[in-house]
Design brief:
This protein has 269 residues and is an all-alpha fold. Helix content is 61%, strand content 0%. The protein contains 11 helices and no strands.
């Protein structure tokens, strides 16, 4: 009698799962290294775009990928066969990321000098791309922790449009509260709640909590809450608490391994 519950030993094209995984890692590593040499490395890159505007374009391209994949469920590229689907997704993400960067620094920056490309040391680009810190948190948690509530019952692209609009409100509010006092031309860093370095470390730690609970743990423990609205509230607070714990754990580990004087000797973050 043949069992129908035996685990599949191939992923696609007859490749064992581990071969397919290694091939994916190898392709990503090669493309990542080549991209680094082309766009970032000071000795090899012909563009001189690092750290800015490269970092701004990278941030906005990352959040563009989140919008396309999580918010809109790859609506558009999903209808294409591979490899056109993947190439279209990459091209769309890059075009959106580069386009937002240029609009902020070149167009809006001519009205509001906080975002101007001409600011020294790329500060205008940095002021714009740090919106992505909060956007990454809210748009990922909306998809993986909130399970796209309250828009889950809508078809795409209506679901994506609703999910794109509402998280933009807390994203911009937290950005205005925590980033602009540090980087706006009218700001005074002495009055800011956090320094930029602390803010980046803390928000990244909260994002790690979102990814761990939402993706690695299949939205546990939040999925045990039956009420969608309550699940949103509890996961929001819970991820912030867990992320804050991750931040202090990492900070303590870094101080233990590196000491308190190493960051100062290494220069500004």
């Amino acid at each position: 009698m043949t069992s129908t519950t035996a685990p599949a030993r191939t992923v696609r094209h007859g490749m064992p799962w581990w071969t397919f995984g290694i091939a994916n890692v190898a392709v990503v590593a090669i493309l990542g290294t080549l991209s680094w040499w082309l766009l970032v490395d000071p000795a090899w890159s012909p563009f001189g775009a690092y750290p800015q505007p490269y970092t701004a374009m990278l941030f906005w391209t990352i959040i563009s990928t989140v919008w396309l994949a999580f918010t809109f469920g790859w609506t558009g590229p999903a209808g294409l066969p591979q490899p056109l689907r993947g190439l279209a997704a990459i091209a769309t993400s890059v075009v959106i990321g580069v386009g937002i960067t240029l609009l902020l620094a070149g167009v809006y920056g001519s009205v509001d000098p906080t975002f101007a490309a001409s600011r020294p040391e790329g500060t205008g680009f940095t002021a714009g791309n740090l919106v992505v810190l909060f956007a990454f948190f809210f748009y990922v948690t909306a998809a993986v922790n909130w399970e796209q509530w309250p828009w889950a019952g809508l078809p795409q692209p209506l679901r994506g449009l609703g999910e794109l609009a509402l998280p933009a409100i807390p994203t911009v509010a937290l950005y205005a509260l925590l980033v602009l006092p540090n980087l706006a031309v009218w700001g005074d860093p002495a009055t800011a709640v956090f320094s930029i370095a602390t803010l980046i470390g803390w928000v990244y730690s909260v994002i790690v909590a979102v990814v761990v609970t939402g993706v690695l743990l299949d939205n546990r423990p939040w999925s045990s809450i039956r009420s969608p609205g309550l699940r949103v509230a509890v996961s929001l607070v819970g991820n912030i608490v867990i992320g804050t714990g991750i931040y202090y754990l990492n900070l303590g580990t870094a101080l233990l391994l590196l000491g308190r004087t190493t960051p100062a000797r290494s220069g500004p973050a």
